[in-house]
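Sample 3 of the quickstart, ligand fe (iii) ion:
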Amino acid sequence: MAAKDKDLNDLFLDTLKDIYYAEKQILKALPKMARAASSDQLRAAFEKHQAETEGQVERLEQVFEMLDKPARGKTCDAIVGILDEGKEIMDEYKGTDALDAGMLAAAQAVEHYEISRYGTLKTWATELGMNDAARLLDQTLKEEEKTDQTLTQLAKAAVNLAAA
Ligand code: FE
Ligand code: FE
Ligand code: FE
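Result:
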């Protein structure tokens, strides 16, 4: 397809594939992060988000269905890079007191990427008149924002504990 023929519908589908790929990678990373976490609270947060992420993948599959397109991912270099950084932290800080702080920061980078994507997708779905899709994307956006807030609270509690 010539570049001049591409429109917001193409952009929406491409971005949907991007976040679908990202969610699948996150689904693989979360159990490893949960296993590596020192604090029970952080492990519980990762496990809870693992379950939510499974539902988020299903919502994306529903949106693909609304578009009459097969659910297919497209490599997201951003999430690959963010997850690689997280893995590096887990390797390099294994067994240290700073491990959880590093993992919290890595996990928040993931949530921030997702919040950016879902915010955009929700706006585009609305612009394209896909209100049911916009509603599904908004449900996921709210879960990502809530997760980010939980991680912020855990990070603050950990910093306060270390400072005490
Ligand atoms: Fe997600
Ligand atoms: Fe991406
Ligand atoms: Fe998330």
